[in-house]
């Protein structure tokens, strides 16, 4: 399977997992945010970060550390996106990003 095809599948799986988790966690934190805004921000966060993990970062990081460095960078970048666009404090944004990415990563390991 082409690398680009695996990327598109990974993007679809990531969006399918992370957006519903975002809904659930925002309900847990009792934050009143519109469904449209949650979907939009969830899609934008993943659509902006996943290509960097797959295509930009890989030539610059040793393969032994790639997944750790990449996931930490994505966690931080998505936290800032959630903080700015969902108006969450940084701690909540970091927690939500951590859970979304952890679940997505673990399910991705099972699928791929």
How would you characterize the overall build of this protein?
It contains 4 helices and no strands. The mean pLDDT is 93. The protein starts with a helix and ends with a helix. The chain is mostly helical and 112 residues long. It has one domain. Helices cover 80% and strands 0% of the residues. Helix 2 runs antiparallel to helix 3 (66-85) and helix 3 crosses helix 4. The protein has helices at 3-28, 35-56, 66-85, 90-111.
SSE blueprint and pairings:
Elements lengths: L2 H26 L6 H22 L9 H20 L4 H22 L1
Helix pairs in contact: 1-2, 1-4, 2-3, 3-4
- Profile the largest sheet: none
Shape: globular
What is the SS-derived class?
Answer: mainly alpha
Individual helix count? 4
Order of SSEs: HHHH
Task: Assign a percent range to the helix content.
Answer: over 70%
Radius of gyration: 14 Å
Q: Provide the β-strand percentage band.
A: under 5%
Structurally, the number of domains stands at: 1
Mean pLDDT: 93
Number of beta strands? 0
Distance between the termini: 12 Å
Low-confidence stretches: none
């Amino acid at each position: 399977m082409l690398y680009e095809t695996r990327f598109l599948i990974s993007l679809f799986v990531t969006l399918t997992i992370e957006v519903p988790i975002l809904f659930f966690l925002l309900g847990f934190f009792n934050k009143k945010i519109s469904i449209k805004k949650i979907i939009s921000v969830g899609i934008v966060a993943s659509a902006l970060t996943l290509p960097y993990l797959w295509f930009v970062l890989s030539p610059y990081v040793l393969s032994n550390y790639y997944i750790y460095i990449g996931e930490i960078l994505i966690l931080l970048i998505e936290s800032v996106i959630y903080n700015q666009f969902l108006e969450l404090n940084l701690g909540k944004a970091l927690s939500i990003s951590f859970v979304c990415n952890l679940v997505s990563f673990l399910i991705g390991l099972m699928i791929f």
